[in-house]
Amino acid sequence: MTDTAPARPEPGGPAAGADSDAARLADLGYTQELSRSLGILGNIAMGFAVVSPVVALYAVSMVGTMIAGPAWVWALPIVLLGQCLVVNVYSELASQWPLTGGPYQWGRRLLGPSFGWLSGWVWQFAVMLGNTTVAYLAAPWIFALVGATPTPGSLVAVAAGILLACMLVNAYGIRILSWFVSLGIAAEAIASVLVGSALLLFFREHEFSLFTETLGAEELSGGSTIAAFLAVLAVAGWGFIGFDACVSTAEETKDAARQVPRAMWWALLSVGVVVILNAIAVALAHPAPQTVVAGEDLDPVTTAVTTAFGAWSDKPFVAVVLVGFLACAMASQGGAARGVYSLARDGVFPFSRHVRKVNSRQAPIGGLVASTLVSCTGLLLGLNATAIGSLIAFGTAATFLPFFLVSLAALIARLRGTWVPSGHIRLGRKGTFLNLLAVLWTAFEVANVCWPRAILAPPGAPRYQIWAGLLGIGVVITVGLVYLFVKKPQDALRAAQALEEGSRNQQNKNEPAADPAPQRP
């Protein structure tokens, strides 16, 4: 953490608007090192790209249909509503503390250094290994585009190339990253909306009553419709994560305290609408949903599109899907790098002195290299399909855990009276109630995602893959606790926090007192 803060701009000066963010950052104990050049649209683009309607739909459509039949789509609005509860909490926090590395920065201010560090540790590995998953799932689309058949080794090599290319784009700074991401999501969003609308309006094969049917899919869950729907809620959770990428670029967004909360809402809701639209459209346009339930059609989205538009649409559609995956990978990798940077500049991440470095383009180059190395290391599991499946299961579970930890920390601090939201967004008593609902929702979803289900693993998968979510979280938390015990990063954070509070108190003493109000005649 830096020891000195930049001088405040004179009120009304030419740089007053631009410098107010830097002054706010100084109040929180940091100097402006990253390039603050994003507007509200750029910040929305980061969140939209990571949530990504194309990636979200491909991640859940086939599995959801196999588990619960066409009725699986009812899980989407439920999960979207649950994630809106989380955004409520995140909005109040981002409004008060617009800092990159949200779970870490907020957690240590709400419940102390140890809790904050562990929250940041878990979130960081969830994002970095999530990047591994995105790159690995993007690689087959490159082979599909060129008409080649991949081997396990070639998939890993191409996925590593994707991660390295995304690192290169990120290294050129937030403006270049935002340009690439915006271009990608523009193509993705237009294609998604156009394709979804066309399927729904002109190529429907079924009536809307299809969504009341399971087509016997619940047999995979022992004949229990409730068990099948719970499994679908776990799967659908993957479709609405990533809006917190808006927080990752908070220190590069103008008027961040106001714009980051707005961006999170826009990113989540816009993607939510597109995903639900396309999920409904694909189901109604698919020529034979029963083949998906039976496991005979492993790509129902492409089947619906090519059946409706003809074989010529195959390659263009593959290109659109690939663009969506690449935009997602770029934005997600950028968020991971900034999270590592946030931990490293406080000296509480391994090799912090190197990892905290920022290059001449004001990009967190140390965080980029570190996060890319971790993500590429995870790709080695791709040489074994069972192992990569375990990584995917861990990534889903680990992503919801920070949502729960942040929501829980905020609720405890509210009830203790140690945190009263003081940012632009203050929801008062309603905020406490919504915060409680967010804790209940995220606790349910963490348990639901971690619950060992053989139906979510390949046939004959080993038991460790079925338990991969819980085992993976256990390993990350255990390593984090060992690091806390041995390296004691919480001690450094306590000292830095005391310095920050002392600096703020001294600054308040030096500020001139307000003029007394004139007395009435």
Structure description:
This protein is mostly helical. 70% of the residues lie in helices and 0% in strands. The protein is built from 21 helices and no strands. The protein has helices spanning 16-27, 40-51, 53-68, 75-96, 102-110, 113-146, 152-171, 174-202, 225-236, 245-248, 256-285, 289-293, 300-309, 314-344, 352-355, 365-379, 385-416, 428-450, 463-466, 468-487, 489-510. Helix 4 runs antiparallel to helix 11 (256-285) and helix 6 (113-146) crosses helix 16 (365-379). The N and C termini lie far apart (52 Å).
Keywords:
521 residues; disordered N terminus; mainly alpha
What can be said about this structure in brief?
The chain has 521 residues and is mainly alpha-helical. It is built from 21 helices and no strands.
- Terminal Cα span: 52 Å
Number of helices: 21
Strand content: under 5%
What general form does the structure show? globular
**Mean of residue pLDDT values:** 88
Low-confidence stretches: 1-17, 513-521
CA radius of gyration: 23 Å
The ordered string of helix (H) and strand (E) elements is: HHHHHHHHHHHHHHHHHHHHH
